[in-house]
Amino acid sequence: xxxxxxxxxxxxxxxxxxxxxxxxxxxxxxxxxxxxxxxxxxxxxxxxxxxxxxxxxxxxxxxxxxxxxxxxxxxxxxxxxxxxxxxxxxxxxxxxxxxxxxxxxxxxxxxxxxxxxxxxxxxxxxxxxxxxxxxxxxxxxxxxxxxxxxxxxxxxxxxxxxxxxxxxxxxxxxxxxxxxxxxxxxxxxxxxxxxxxxxxxxxxxxxxxxxxxxxxxxxxxxxxxxxxxxxxxxxxxxxxxxxxxxxxxxxxxxxxxxxxxxxxxxxxxxxxxxxxxxxxxxxxxxxxxxxxxxxxxxxxxxxxxxxxxxxxxxxxxxxxxxxxxxxxxxxxxxxxxxxxxxxxxxxxxxxxxxxxxxxxxxxxxxxxxxxxxxxxxxxxxxxxxxxxxxxxxxxxxxxxxxxxxxxxxxxxxxxxxxxxxxxxxxxxxxxxxxxxxxxxxxxxxxxxxxxxxxx
Length: 455
Ligand code: NGQ
Ligand code: ZN
Description:
The protein is α/β, with parallel strands linked by helices. The longest helix has 19 residues, at 436-454. The chain is built from 14 helices and 17 strands. It is 36% helix and 21% strand. Strands 3-2-1-4-14-15-16-17 form an eight-stranded mixed sheet. Strands 5, 6, 7, 8 and 9 form a five-stranded parallel sheet that branches. Strands 10-11-12-13 form a four-stranded parallel sheet. Helix 2 (94-110) runs parallel beside helix 3 (136-148). The mean pLDDT is 98. Zinc ion binds next to loops.
């Protein structure tokens, strides 16, 4: 058994003092006891809180970060970015995917994420054929999660069409092509990898790329508890196409045709009308918000205020990985709303007025649901996933517990995450990932290879 004594720790009810945190050899929390005396021989930390869930990742896109920020000849958009991303995805190998994912996950860990949901769709080889192992590339990403030490929910992606109305895929989408049978086969191959750190769910890519009939078929063959993620209503053009094809907006159309409940994560859900806001909040599904990617791709702003007022659940994801920082996602989430409404402190409630606390706790709860794993708070029975903040940093030194998350989320750009424990293993110590050298060396080699392939 191992333990940590936190002078201040964020528990589900808020910040508590003198918290004795104990976990077993399997990495499960055994007891979390506030107002405890410091036991002899147990190391102490100042500020401890649960690690964040990154509920939306396309790991391979990490290697494209920063390389699409040059204006083209016509106006640039989500859709022109997508063409560049497709081109990038064409030549990438399973080895590349593993190395990129390991680098990404090590960065995510250093910046406060202890779990990730991988929305995984590069599943065929460069010629568009299935690999000999149907889950080859998904297994690579899971292997990367193990070498970096992050918990993972692998979501193999159902991807059959290029647009509403079952339009045939374009050649540049051939590596993504899966039908319901392929997906069930991939999920079955991943079954032996499921453990306390690894869950497997499913992700219909979007209503553009998967039909309602296919979604029903896949869900009919999966256990009820497995998480289901989908991209939805990210761009206005998608809303218009949905209206033209189905007569309904995407979220409305999904909810009218399939039971959307707490096992669902609707990623982006940016463009909602009032009825969709209310229906999504009432469904118990999680809105998977990815503020830095949504900003980078020019998506729009999620209607956070009415959604929260209606009791909606949310979590955060880094999606294209233009940022790997939980702080930056949450900061952008709140700042987008301040700019929109020309007000301050939007993400708060009458019972939680601290915006940083509201955002961190809210994103933890939604993220844990979306991950479908035993994570999201420091509570007995859940995974021992926690962050130790740098209590000596000038932004945190000596401040009251009620200001810790305000300072952490909103003030400055130093990384205040000092140590990170995942499933009872220390994977970040003093700001450094324990395997950073080897992981980054391999990543740099891969970038060199990819540059050669492109030139
Ligand atoms: C993706 N990314 O699957 O990587 C998508 C782009 C699409 C985001 N939606 C492709 N951010 O949606 O068609
Ligand atoms: Zn995405």
